[in-house]
Each structure stands twice: as structure tokens, then as C-alpha cells.
Amino acid sequence: FNSFHSISISAIINLKKYNFPQSVELNEDQKALAKKHGEQCSSELNLTEEEVAKVKAKDFKNPTENIKCFANCFFEKIGTLKDGELQEAVVLEKLGSFIGEEKTKAALEKCRSVKGENKCETAVKLHECFEEFKPAHAIKA
């Protein structure tokens, strides 16, 4: 499930495995940890084959509740969300190293008030908000 990275980390630390949008590549430990978290969340939530396919295709339009909860699970495992609350210091540390501190602070300013009906929906809405701040160019991992 390598491409599970896309739902979560593109939002917070831009960790897309296949086509991630930043000029900094992840080291092997970071990639392995992201893969581990993705597989754990997929297993915990019993994602269907169709849901796995949507995540791999980076298709987050009309996400199922499972896909929303996958985002929350992943964000919680990397430390950027806790009980549906954005952990701003962690976001600043992780995202700042990829897009810079100023851009990260701007993202936090816009996204910190984003809330959904539950923590899973909040995670997906935060993903959407942070996506607006990713660099425009893309490189292969």
C-alpha cells in the first residue's frame, strides 16, 4: 500500500510515494514508516479493495467514511492530529521542512479552524485545505 502516503502526507508532510509534490525526497526510513502507518491504518479500518484502489488513485472526491477515517488514523500516527485537533507544533516541524516555515504558518493560519462533523471528516477537510499549499511542481520519488 505504498501509495497510501498520498492521502495523508501530501497534506501534512507531502510524502507522496509515486509523484510527491516537493523538491525534497524522503529518506528510506521516512518512506518505510509512512508505508507501515498506511498498512496499519488500512488493516485497522478493513478498507475494501475499492477503497484501497481509490486511495492508490489519489481519488478523494466523495470519500467513504473508511477513507476519511484512514486519513485521521494516518495523521494521528504521524502526530499531526490528536483526537481531531491539529497539532500545530508538529505540523510546523514536519511540513516546514518541506515547504518552508512561512508557507507552513500561512497554511496553519488558513487551516487551523477547519472542522468536520467528526474527527474523520476533519482529517479529510484538513487534507483538502493543506493541499492548496503544496508546491506546484512534482518530481518522482
Question: Could you explain the architecture of this structure?
Answer:
60% of the residues lie in helices and 3% in strands. Strand 1 (81-82) and strand 2 (85-86) form a beta hairpin. Strands 1-2 form a two-stranded antiparallel ribbon. The chain is built from 7 helices and 2 strands; from the N terminus they run ααααββααα. Mean pLDDT is 79; it is low at 1-23. It has helices at residues 5-12, 28-45, 49-56, 65-78, 88-99, 101-111, 119-131; strands at residues 81-82, 85-86. The chain has 141 residues and is an all-alpha fold.
**Strand arrangement, largest sheet?**
1-2
Q: Quick one: how many beta strands?
A: 2
Mean pLDDT: 79
Helix proportion range: 55-70%
Gyration radius over CA = 14 Å
Please count the helical segments: 7
Shape: globular
N/C terminus separation = 15 Å
How is the secondary structure organized here?
Layout: H1 5-12, H2 28-45, H3 49-56, H4 65-78, E1 81-82, E2 85-86, H5 88-99, H6 101-111, H7 119-131
Antiparallel strand pairs: 1-2
Helix pairs in contact: 1-4, 1-7, 2-4, 4-7, 5-6
